[in-house]
């Protein structure tokens, strides 16, 4: 799963994959804003869908599809909220995921590293606040 900044970036990633012959054209799926895909091991085995090796999704498209046939996600640091980032990770990490290992990679450098650190701080703060809320509920 490749996460693109937007539809323009999605097309750039697609062309880069094809021009470098990384993966055949028929094994790449571009997920559009109104599209949905249910790419699971069972659906591929039953012949309901092609076994795409790469699905390129725009960063803002974080809901409405399942990609458990895949086991890796490559993204960058895009301005977004923690819920969107969690939803994106959840597209391949679902109950129907059969792989023991799921790989997440975030590509960043320079200012993007600072933005990523801010994202991680916000995520850690959200986790701490959730824990505090759970403690309050239990009392």
Task: Explain this structure.
This protein has a 3-stranded parallel β-sheet with strand order 1-3-2. It has a two-stranded parallel sheet with strand order 4-5. It folds into 2 domains: 2-107, Rossmann fold, CATH 3.40.50.300; 109-139. The chain is α/β, with parallel strands linked by helices and 139 residues long. 40% of the residues lie in helices and 15% in strands. The radius of gyration is 17 Å and the shape is globular.
Spatial arrangement of strands, main beta sheet: 1-3-2
CATH fourth-tier homologous superfamily of the largest domain: P-loop containing nucleotide triphosphate hydrolases
> How many separate domains make up the residues?
2
* Secondary-structure-derived class: alpha/beta
As for the CATH topology of the largest domain, it is: Rossmann fold
Strand content: 15-25%
SSE topology:
Elements: E1 2-4, H1 7-19, E2 28-30, H2 41-45, E3 54-58, E4 72-76, H3 82-90, E5 103-107, H4 111-138
Parallel strand pairs: 1-3, 2-3, 4-5
Which labels suit this protein?
single chain, 139 residues, alpha/beta, Rossmann fold, 3-stranded parallel sheet, two-stranded parallel ribbon, 4 helices, 15% strand
Tell me briefly what this model is.
This protein is α/β, with parallel strands linked by helices. It has 4 helices and 5 strands.
């Amino acid at each position: 799963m490749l996460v693109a900044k937007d539809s323009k970036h999605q097309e750039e990633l697609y062309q880069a994959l094809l021009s470098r012959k990384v993966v055949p054209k028929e094994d790449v799926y571009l997920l559009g804003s109104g599209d949905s895909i249910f790419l699971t091991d069972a659906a591929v085995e039953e012949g309901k869908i092609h076994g795409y090796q790469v699905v390129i999704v725009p960063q803002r498209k974080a809901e409405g599809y399942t990609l458990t046939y895949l086991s890796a996600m490559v993204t960058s640091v895009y301005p977004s909220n923690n819920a969107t980032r969690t939803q994106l990770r959840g597209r391949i990490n679902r109950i129907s995921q059969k792989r023991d290992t799921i790989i997440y990679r975030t590509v960043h450098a320079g200012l993007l590293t600072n933005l990523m650190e801010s994202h991680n701080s916000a995520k850690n703060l959200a986790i701490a606040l959730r824990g505090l809320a759970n403690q309050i509920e239990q009392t």
